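Data availability (excerpt). All sequences and predicted token strings are deposited with the supplementary files. A representative entry, 2-hydroxyacid dehydrogenase, is shown inline so that the format can be inspected without opening the archive.
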Amino acid sequence: MSPRVRVAVLDDYQNVALTSADWSAVTARADVTVFDDHVADPDELVDRLAPFDVVFVMRERTPLPRNVLERLPRLRMIASTGPANASIDMAATEELGIHVSGTGGSVASTVELTWALILAAARNLVAESRSVADGGWQTTVGRELDRRVLGVLGLGRIGSRMARIGAAFGMDVVAWSQNLTPDAAADAGVRYLPRDEFFATADVLTVHLKLSERSRGLIGAPELDAMKPTALLINTSRGPIVDEAALIDALRSGSIAGAGLDVFDTEPLPPGHPLRTLPNVTATPHVGYVADRPYRIFFRDGVAAIAEWLDGR
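Structure token line:
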């Protein structure tokens, strides 16, 4: 009798993987092990995953590059949440005969989290909430968004929703990206601005691009220097789109007023990192997609994909 298939579920920080979907079609034929911690060291990761035939990854929390995949001869399938995962070396999986599946998803939760960060940063909600908890009262003066300029960097599925909500707040919505044209911006109901004018004009600049070699470091020191000293930078896309060192310098010097961040170069964010403690940063731990509906879709589709693979489909 052949040994039972072993499935590893990685980075289940909230311990909800097994309750977010019906796993019976998998557990009837495979042993499932859930890990709620994160392993960053490649050697430790290889040691952890060596006994498993299937690995279930949550978005890009644990990268699977070639130098890891080549050391996992037993691995035959990767189930990844979301339609694509840039942290999996797809060329290596094809060469090694490892099947990779994706899932559906929802962008609404990321849009909502982005607006939560904008509002929290504009109205200093973290500081005011702490003041109340500590027995104090009002400590800051917030800013209205009405008639301010919302700059949307990337007018795709998320960016276009951000633009519509910005208009509902009474904001003047402008957009720019490397591929955006004035006609496409007009079709989305926003004004196109050339690159330099875009960064100089936005009161709130929100990032909605996919991470690629072209977008990596797209917002660096020159772009941050061009922004208003009263401007807020919001990033719920991917950390490396913004040059982290340049951003920290801009926040420390006051060349921009603040940032709302859900994504970082290294995740989880290391203890003692400046972005954990800078007073003009509102930070969340990459929870844009961490909500009830996306999780149900992720785990439902991921479990179905593993079951199909066990069926030989």
